[in-house]
């Protein structure tokens, strides 16, 4: 069956035909393609097409798809079993690597997803501080837990529902939402509610409303206010962790959070999440403390093997300078074509992360992001797809560059991007 037939069949058995909303192509229209296999920097579709991929399974494929070292690690672990239900050596090895590489990490707890990791950070912050209020920022997506799916990004923005149905008002009322990069709003919030704020959670580089780069001093202000009022600073580095630097955004920006949520790359392409942070706070978790958190498959041996292989590749290759060069090459191609066509465009970057906003003004928060042209992005997306390049099927997602992208891939992509822009 081709992709259209597969999608129609899937809608009979899977809600909406997809298991994650953004896959439905809702914000660009049309029918999603189905993937047959992946390898390196390419997706091979069920329609017989080969696409250069810049979605990279939404971030985890830092070293490309089906990386031989990661695949070998999974194969070796598979021979020993798929799940233990007991502590394992793989969990210990992963924890040691995270603590070695992430600046704030003194203790680690594995989970099954990034959503579980952020949800656990929020519960731990409330338990530790004995306060209820959580501060987040509009457009920052922290998974689909009730406390944080308020003015979120990612698929929620794609479908025009920043707030999900099914979240009780009483829970939403405990979450304060501020504009990202708004210094005055942060000051006012802490002056009014500081003694009640358990924690501030944010993506240090918001990457689920397109990419937003923090203004100089903004992350430092959050660190200062949390310290002043005894609130916990929580970085959601599910995307930025090991993507923008070996130590994540916190290392790149030199700002130390109290807790940090991780995911994606630490699973090497398998489902995973983790959270880490200060020893005294992390020891407040059960079985040492009163904050309960658990997971039957947390620390799954296959995921630990894959993630450990990925982190070892990070340490061996230190790919970040080359990844940033590749990202800049693509961003420059887009900007050059837009200049030729007199199209106003923004291409914010952070390491191997790139975003494309059809917008005349610099995008510093969600409100500005939402003023970008969806129609222009839709045309750009389909022109790229027709040309053999797969970018995110939403103007509110980002592009990921991987170590597997060759210069030949980049040159081809730059030609496709240029043609797409000039056709607008």
Structure, briefly:
The protein has 424 residues and is an alpha/beta fold.
Question: What is the element layout, followed by pairings?
Answer:
Blueprint: H1 3-10, E1 35-39, E2 42-45, E3 50-53, H2 68-78, H3 89-101, E4 107-111, H4 114-129, E5 133-137, H5 155-158, H6 169-172, E6 175-178, H7 183-193, E7 197-202, H8 218-229, E8 232-236, H9 248-253, E9 259-263, E10 273-277, H10 279-282, H11 301-317, H12 320-341, E11 349-350, E12 353-354, H13 366-369, H14 374-387, E13 389-390, E14 399-400, H15 407-422
Parallel strand pairs: 3-13, 5-6, 5-7, 7-8, 8-9
Antiparallel strand pairs: 1-2, 2-3, 4-10, 9-10, 11-12, 12-14
Helix pairs in contact: 2-11, 3-11, 7-8, 12-15, 14-15
Describe what this molecule looks like in 3D.
By secondary structure, the chain is α/β, with parallel strands linked by helices. The protein folds into two domains: 3-62 and 319-422, Alpha-Beta Complex (Aspartate Aminotransferase, domain 1), CATH 3.90.1150.10; 68-316, Aspartate Aminotransferase, domain 2 (3-Layer(aba) Sandwich). The protein is 38% helix and 13% strand. The chain is built from 15 helices and 14 strands. The strands form three sheets. The chain has a seven-stranded mixed beta sheet, sandwiched between helices. Strand 7, helix 8 (218-229) and strand 8 form a beta-alpha-beta unit. The longest helix has 22 residues, at 320-341. The protein is globular and about 55 Å long. The model is unreliable at 155-162 (pLDDT under 50).
Characteristics of this structure?
424 residues; alpha/beta; Aspartate Aminotransferase, domain 1; Aspartate Aminotransferase, domain 2; seven-stranded mixed beta sheet; four-stranded mixed beta sheet
